[in-house]
Specification:
The protein has 307 residues and is α/β, with parallel strands linked by helices. It contains twelve helices and twelve strands. An eight-stranded parallel beta barrel has the order 1-2-3-4-5-6-7-8, surrounded by six helices. The chain has a two-stranded antiparallel sheet with strand order 9-10. It is globular and about 65 Å long.
């Protein structure tokens, strides 16, 4: 299912006030986190808090998601059963952490299918999957095609740092000046290519230093330039930044529309490439322009103005 995913806000499922704030955040997607954001002693109670948040709060157009615990934990099975049974149609997406192979995605798909049939749900729950283990990175292409439910693949830089034994700080980057260029470029492109080949969305990693708005904006802009559809936010203050960075500007939309209209007119006249504003325009440029217009449509804007 096509959804806007410019911003995906992580929120502890164990904290009712944070859940309420998340519903008002304006994020395209909010996931209530049963995994890393919940202490082991709070995980079981957090399921009920998540269900009440999904069913009792006004989420507007925000996509409602839950991140379950890993498949190798004692909580995963009951996470799925209790949250899906309680939230039902109010749950849109389940996020799978630390996927290592396509089999991990298949297992969640099977259990969701059984629950949907048992509960008589009226809509199909989507899946997103985190690539945050070395094995998962190597199997990213397999993981991205493991289920027709998969809507997005997420680059999970935190646990991947640990899995790869990377020498990074609390923001999952090395000290400035100690590494040339983007430390995570190769891994980002690998996850991006896996998602694009599978025809699903690709979401960039979190940026833990939420007080550094400029750093978050720069990191988001880098991911947007590569082709990512959105970015993880760990604080509501990061949401408007992500929404802005991953939304085409009015000028970008106007240029794309002009290019598409001009190229289509040329095609009708039997011309395969045209000159426009002093630049050769061919089929590759058309695809890029259509990508811009598709992103604008998902964000539901025209000439940069929200509908």
């Amino acid at each position: 299912m096509a959804r806007a995913r410019r911003s995906e806000l992580a929120t502890p499922a164990s904290n009712e006030s944070m859940c309420a704030a998340a519903a008002r955040s304006g994020a395209d997607l909010v996931f209530l986190d049963l995994e890393d954001a919940c202490a082991p002693s709070a995980k079981e109670a957090a399921r009920g808090i998540a269900v009440r948040a999904f069913t009792g709060l006004d989420w507007g157009r925000t996509t409602r998601a839950v991140r379950i615990n890993g498949l190798d934990t004692p909580w995963c099975h009951d996470d799925l059963i209790e949250v899906v049974t309680g939230a039902r149609e109010r749950l849109d997406v389940v996020i799978i952490p630390k996927a290592r192979s396509g089999r991990d995605v298949w297992w969640v798909d099977v259990l969701l299918t059984q629950l949907e049939i048992k509960l008589g749900l009226s809509h199909r729950i989507g899946l997103e999957v985190l690539i945050e283990e070395a094995e998962g990175l190597l199997n990213a292409a397999e993981i991205a095609t493991a289920s027709s439910r998969l809507e997005a693949i997420i680059f999970g830089v935190g646990d991947l740092s640990a899995s790869l034994h990377a020498r990074v700080g609390g923001n999952f980057r090395p000290e400035p000046g100690t590494y040339p260029g983007d430390f995570w470029h190769a891994e980002r492109v690998q996850v991006l290519a896996a998602g694009r080949a599978a025809g699903i969305d690709v979401i960039d990693s979190p940026y833990p230093d939420y007080a550094d708005a400029d750093g978050y904006r720069a990191d988001a802009a880098h991911a947007a330039a590569l082709g990512f559809d959105g970015k993880w936010a760990i604080h509501p203050s990061q949401v408007p930044i992500a929404n802005a960075v991953f939304t085409p500007t009015a000028d970008e939309i106007d240029r794309a529309r002009t290019l598409v209209e001009g190229y289509r007119a040329a095609q009708r006249d039997g011309v395969g490439a045209i000159g426009q504003s002093g630049q050769l325009v061919d089929a590759g440029h058309l695809r890029l322009a259509e990508n811009v217009l598709a992103k604008a449509a998902l964000a539901q804007i025209e000439s940069g103005v929200a509908r």
